[in-house]
Structure formats: C-alpha cells, structure tokens
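in:
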C-alpha cells in the first residue's frame, strides 16, 4: 500500500517514471529481463518496499532500483506509527526525488505535502476491509461491513470509516448481491457524511458518482466522478468507473486517455483490464476483448464478470460453442452469485434451452439483478 501511494506521488513528477518492484516482477515472467520490461513500459526505476507492523508501530524499508542495471540506487528505513504514515510517505517521495537530483516545480512540491494524519484504528480498518469489499464475495463483504460498523462505534465520525461503509453498502447493489435499495440509501448517507467532513477532497464526489451509477443517472455518475478525478487522478477504481461512465454514455474518446494513463502506471491492474475490455466490446473489437479478459482473469480468477463479458463477446462474434465452453470452464456455479447465474442463463439461451434458462431466472434473482 505505501509503495503504491509513493508511486502515485512520483507519477505526478514529470521527470520520473517509476513502477513497483512487484509489478515489474509480475510482468517480467520467465522470458523477459527487468531491463526489457523497463524499455517496453518506458520506466526508469522500480520501487520496492516492505512494512512490518507490531500493534501500532511500523518498521518500513524502501529501496529504489535502476531497472536497466537491476541494481539498487537508494534505500532507507523508517520507524513510526500508523499516525505517521502520510508523513513517512512524504519523506520517501522526497528522498527519492532528491537521490535522483530531480528539481521539483512549485506544483510538484505541493502535491507531496503530507496529508493530515488519520485515526490509526480507522485507517487500518479502512485499508483491510477494502480488499474484502472489492472481492464480490458476500461473506467477505459482510465481514467488512461488521468491522467498519464496529470501528464507527469506537472512533465516532471518521471520513475513512464512512467511506468504507459507503463502499460496502454500494457494492451490495453493484455486485447484485441484494436488491434491497436500503443499501444504496445507506451508502448515500455515508457518502454525504464524507463530503461534509472533507468538502475539498475527492472521496465524497467519488462515492456519490459510484452511487449514481446504480441509480441509472449517468449525468451525475460522470459529473461526480469527473470532479473526483480532477481532484485526485491517482485513485484507480474511481478512474475506471469514470471510464465506464464515459463509455456507456457514448463518449469512449474521453475514456481512452484515462485508460492509457492508468495502464502506464499499473499494467497489471485487473479491474483496469476489465474496464478496457468493456471499451473494446463497445467498439466491436472482439479480439481485443478476448485478450483483455484473459489477462484480467489470470490476475483475478474469481471475478464473476469476466467470463460473463467474454462469453457475451464470443456470442456476438458468432462463436457460440466457444462462448458456451467459456461459461462451462470459467464461470462459478449458478448459485454462487447473481452474475454467475446470469452467465449460465446466457449459456442455456445460446443452446436454446429455454426451460433451463427460465429455471435460473427466478423472481428472487430478478429482484437482485434488476434492482
């Protein structure tokens, strides 16, 4: 997390091109050298970091690596607490810029200024539960909601806790796990609380944009997420959902520059590849959809939307049997989640098995999917 946040900072400095060591190694594979990866991505340096946590104390080690030579250029250790995390982030970003003798503009200097230290317990809960929220797995999402609710009771109003609660309630609707619109109403209450507590921040409009995406209000969907992107272009999920909005609004030319920028920062971000697959599907580039879905699936094999989109694409291209095989080989069982059921309904429809499709399209399923 800290490494990626530092890279987000450094990406705002025009003279630097940095990726995480983890991303570089994922891309390297067995057949590519680190230098080759650097040349392909036009990246000069890789950043490697580790964090050891004991209670509230942190021990952080950071190394900067010259990709061309695969040798370390700079390393440092930091000690502190969770309350110091943003201060440490600023120190790391500035130390790297100094070690490379980069002169910052006034604007670049300002973006590195540390934000206000968060409540340690609230921030830790927010970071841990975020992984469960984006899992699309009901049990993990419920665990996240319980942890965030407990944190709210302990620390009181906190922008990170409210943001987490807004996200998890929104995801119940977005993922089709529930058709109960109370979840969206709760998400809205928490999102507006975030906006009230941090009126100049990006988190409030970002959350509201996501919520409007589930209300069918594409104008406010794009308007809020565009505002969030202007305030903070380094949040990847918000940027991808902004691109979804532009694509579905019929303006893919506005989405593609954002896709390209995100791809240059993290070419192994599964949700980004999934978003780009939607763009390619709308453009009728079925071969590219297949490539992007396969890459995304390797990174997120349990994501229920990937086999669904790939099967739809192959069916649109007239490759019916291949579409059916994708569902049979890649999709979760139909009772796993509503998107998996939808994917199997498509399989039955492609084979003309109307009775089997109708059996899966129950009233309860419809209430979740079409909420």
């Amino acid at each position: 997390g800290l490494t990626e946040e530092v890279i987000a900072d450094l990406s705002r400095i025009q003279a630097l091109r940095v990726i995480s060591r983890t991303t570089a190694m994922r891309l390297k594979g067995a057949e590519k050298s680190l230098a080759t990866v650097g040349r392909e991505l036009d990246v000069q340096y890789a950043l490697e970091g580790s964090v050891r946590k004991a209670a509230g104390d942190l021990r952080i080690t950071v190394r900067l690596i010259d990709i061309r030579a695969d040798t370390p250029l700079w390393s440092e250790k930091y000690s502190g607490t969770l309350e110091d995390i943003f201060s440490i982030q600023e120190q790391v970003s500035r130390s790297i810029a100094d070690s490379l003798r980069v002169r910052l503009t006034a604007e670049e200097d300002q973006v590195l200024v540390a934000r206000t230290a968060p409540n340690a317990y609230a921030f830790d809960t927010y970071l841990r539960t975020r992984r469960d929220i984006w899992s699309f797995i009901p049990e993990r999402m419920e665990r996240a909601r319980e942890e965030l609710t407990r944190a709210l009771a302990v620390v009181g109003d906190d922008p990170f806790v409210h943001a987490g609660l807004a996200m998890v309630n929104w995801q119940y609707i977005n993922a089709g796990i529930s058709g109960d619109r109370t979840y969206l109403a709760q998400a809205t209450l928490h999102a507006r609380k975030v906006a009230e507590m941090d009126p100049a921040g990006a988190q409030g409009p970002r959350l509201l944009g996501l919520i409007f995406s589930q209300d069918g209000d594409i104008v406010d969907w794009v308007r809020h997420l565009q505002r969030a992107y202007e305030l903070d272009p380094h949040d990847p999920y918000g940027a991808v959902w902004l691109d979804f909005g532009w694509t579905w609004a019929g303006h893919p030319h506005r989405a593609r520059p954002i896709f390209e920028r995100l791809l240059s920062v993290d070419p192994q971000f599964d949700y980004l590849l999934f978003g780009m697959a939607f763009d390619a599907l709308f453009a009728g580039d079925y071969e590219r959809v297949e490539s992007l879905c396969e890459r995304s699936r390797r990174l997120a094999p349990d994501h229920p939307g990937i086999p669904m989109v790939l099967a739809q694409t192959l069916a649109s291209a007239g490759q019916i049997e291949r579409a059916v095989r994708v569902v049979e080989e890649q999709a979760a069982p139909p009772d796993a989640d509503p998107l998996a059921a939808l994917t199997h309904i498509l399989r039955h429809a492609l084979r003309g098995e109307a009775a089997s499709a109708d059996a899966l399209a129950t009233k309860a399923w419809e209430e979740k999917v079409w909420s």
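note: The first strand starts at residue 18 and ends at 20.
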